[in-house]
Amino acid sequence: MGALMGGHDWATTSLGPPRHWPQSLVTLMRVMLNSRQPMFIAWGSDRTLVYNDSYAPMLGARHPAALGRPFFETWPEVRDEVGALMDRVFAGEPVHMDDLQLTLHRNGYPEEAHFSFSYTPVPGDDGRTVGLFCACTETTRQVLTEREAASERQRQQALLQQMPGFVAVLGGRKHVFEYVNDAYIAVAGQRDYIGRPVQDVFPELRDQGFFELLDRVYATGEAFAARTVPIRFVEDDDRYLDFLYQPIRDEAGTVTGIFVGGYEVTEEVRSRAALAESESRYRTLFETIDVGFCIIAMKFDETNRAVDYRITEANPAFERQTGANVTGRWVSEFAPNLEPQWLETYGRVALTGQPAHLESWAEVFGRWFDVRALRVGDPAAHRVAVFFTDISERKRMEEALRVLNARLEQQVSERTAERDLLATIVERTDVMVMAADLDYTILAINKANADEFERIYGVRPRVGDNMLDLLADQPEHQAQVRAGWGRGLAGEEVTIIEDYGDPDRVRPYYEISFRTLRNERGERIGCYQFVTDVTERLRDQAELAQAQEALRQSQKLEAVGQLTGGVAHDFNNLLTIIRSSVDFLRRPDLPEERKGRYLDAVSETVERAAKLTGQLLAFARRQALKPEVFDVGQRVRGIADMLDTVTGARVRVLTEVPDEPCFIRADLSQFETALVNMAVNARDAMDGEGTLTLRLVRGAALPAIRGHAGSDQAFAAVSLTDTGLGIPPERLGQIFEPFFTTKEVGKGTGLGLSQVFGFAKQSGGDVDVRSTVGEGATFTLYLPEVTPEERPANASRPDDGMAPLGAGQCVLVVEDNVGVGQFATQILEDLGYSTTWAANAEEALDRLGRTGNGFDLVFSDVVMPGMGGMALAKELQRRLPGLPVVLASGYSHVLAQEGTHGFELLHKPYSAEQLGRILHQVLGLRSGHRTRVTEQRTS
């Protein structure tokens, strides 16, 4: 435009030659020509038009002739719309328009155009407006595009309105309703939707998960679909929806909203639930559960047609239901005429892996079976697991009911026949049924119940008999029957398990369900019972519990076996110190300083030996699972001291335990066993050399492990980290399985980590393993933290001085070991007591006689041939209740299992100070009755 304007003959215009232009016009010219924004200037009374390059395209074919011409000569068609606006500007008023619609003929034909512009008055030297400056933008394309989009939205909404399912469109992060169709309103109700966020429209859905799903779809851009999802509107029952949340994106791919669509399926869900409930009641009433199981190996010909199968495994119910013991045999051998459908069904399962369920008649067995089959193991092995139930009785009942229903439909009047048929069904079932009125008189009884009643009590009941009268000469049985039936006749609907019969014989157990019997008016007139013999089921449960206890003990014994060699090594080291110190103490020229040092070494070594013995005995005790609250950090430190005996000298054991206490509730023995098992596993992984780190973290969260959800509850995390070879990823899923091991035969049973897993689960926690091949592994036990329980006030105190001396009191020492007996009497005499030694309990009783013969106290070992120390103490308590007894023992299974029974207990090995203190305490507190129970332990 600069060149065009420079070559224009301005003298022919009202502006005149450029050298005469006012400075304000020149300045505006420069601004306009250097701008990319479309601009023009209308100057003077005729409003001469001057414009820049960006404005030229708006003129169309009128450019460049429009340059220097009066504005309305160029744009005559806009005079009516623009003339008044320009008049306002030349009057000194600026004008701004966001959208002005004009009809232009710039290209020789009328066309709709839209503009956004501002008119700014330009004052002259005298302050009057001499010109108009305009910055404008043509918005025609934008307006037409928006108009087309609005039309498209209207078409889409009309289409959505016609859809059979409910539809809504939500916009923005707050999910504001932009559209809902009539089907949506029919489902959710008449509400104020448009322009409101979904949380404001549906406050009742706040805790039902829908808002979170919408947020996730908007944030991730991933669609979400679900079926039969429950939803509860205000004051409404649960309803069910199939729905889709589909993100809506703009041209750049950014999520701007969510499309909601779906169907209400409430009636379908309720119909299915009603059908399922009906079927459940039906099967519960007419079926008894006796599931058979077998695994079969299929045989196919060259065309993949199933031609035979072999029974590889079968449970006892298989033989009971089929009448055949066929494990290991081919079906063609024992059932050559078996219907082809069985081979076809099992063959299809073996080849496709699709489970099958069918009910069918097996002619060869003469029975009906309900069968479920699924492929197991390697698909190439063609093995199929078959679960089946003999439903012959049910089929007979179904057939009887079918006949009954058909008869009822045809002959409503045959009610007597209906009652007879139903009575026949009840009479033939194995379940024992009886009904009685409030006076224990029998109203109805089936054959199974009558037979069992006669077998137990020796009398056969009949309708009209009174149960209490029948058992009048059996008061014990009568009382038991009165107690059980009394609950049912009182209106209590209950199921109990109880044993009945002769107490001198094996008494069978029965599961008995009592239900109230009412008349037509709903009044309670008695009750009825269903009875099933559950003796075998309870025996199976007891055997299972016994097997589980045996498994736990085998795991314990394996861990104890790992300790044995290490403990022997440690004891030999301790004995070496004692032996060497004693040899030096025998030297007559040994200085007093060195003598004291050797005596201290012997004393410290004895204490270390006692501590090691105590740890081993506590670890190896056998008892039932007994959860208790203890400081897990203290036990980790204690077990770490013992792990040196397990791991060997080449494994360095480190502990990282916080100073603050951390309490858990678990079985202490199982906890220690778990740590030892993990330590043994770590030692083997390091090939006996490396670093083992025990670490305790308080207040840890339980992570998600093996697909199980985690927990934010506070857990104590006890981890063992080794520097071994690590565990391959494919093995991580197997290491906690019972009997899984990678060790050589004879070097492990595979029960260790299985014990760890079982202990963690039983204690309400879990166990995790993290490993990188070549960098070792970390096993972490997660156990729930608990509040510490109150501790006993009389906790043990360490020795803090010389033992108090006696005052000539007479002590009877009972000890079968000659060396220990002599040593004990010597210590007591050195402490100022008068002593007598008895080699066994029988001799001690002879010396005490009936009066005590002047003895002030009895100091006895626990484990002795014949009568033990505990039995002696109880006998003395009976004979001489005022005579104190102090027991001493290194370990006794009797004490471990039954406790001290109130007698004072001194643990071996003991020092002279400890012996003197406990005797002084017992004799000082003597007041004609036993002292309170305490235990003196070596530190």
What keywords describe this structure?
939 residues, alpha+beta, Beta-Lactamase, 6 domains, six-stranded parallel sheet, 28 helices, extended, disordered C terminus, phosphorelay sensor kinase activity, histidine kinase, EC 2.7.13.3, phosphoprotein, Sig_transdc_His_kin-like_C
Please characterize this protein's 3D structure.
The structure is a single chain. By secondary structure, this protein is α+β, with helices and mostly antiparallel strands. It has 6 domains: 2-144, PAS domain (Beta-Lactamase), CATH 3.30.450.20; 163-269, Beta-Lactamase, CATH 3.30.450; 286-390, PAS domain (Beta-Lactamase, 2-Layer Sandwich), CATH 3.30.450; 430-533, Beta-Lactamase (2-Layer Sandwich), CATH 3.30.450.20; 590-784, 2-Layer Sandwich (Heat Shock Protein 90); 810-936, Rossmann fold. Helix content is 39%, strand content 26%. It contains 28 helices and 33 strands. It has a 6-stranded parallel β-sheet, sandwiched between helices. A 5-stranded antiparallel β-sheet has the order 2-1-5-4-3, with helices on both faces. A 5-stranded antiparallel β-sheet has the order 7-6-10-9-8, sandwiched between helices. The longest helix has 51 residues, at 535-585. The model is unreliable at 282-289, 790-801 and 927-939 (pLDDT under 50). The modification 4-aspartylphosphate is found at residue 861. Residues 810-923 form the Response regulatory domain. It catalyses: ATP + protein L-histidine = ADP + protein N-phospho-L-histidine.
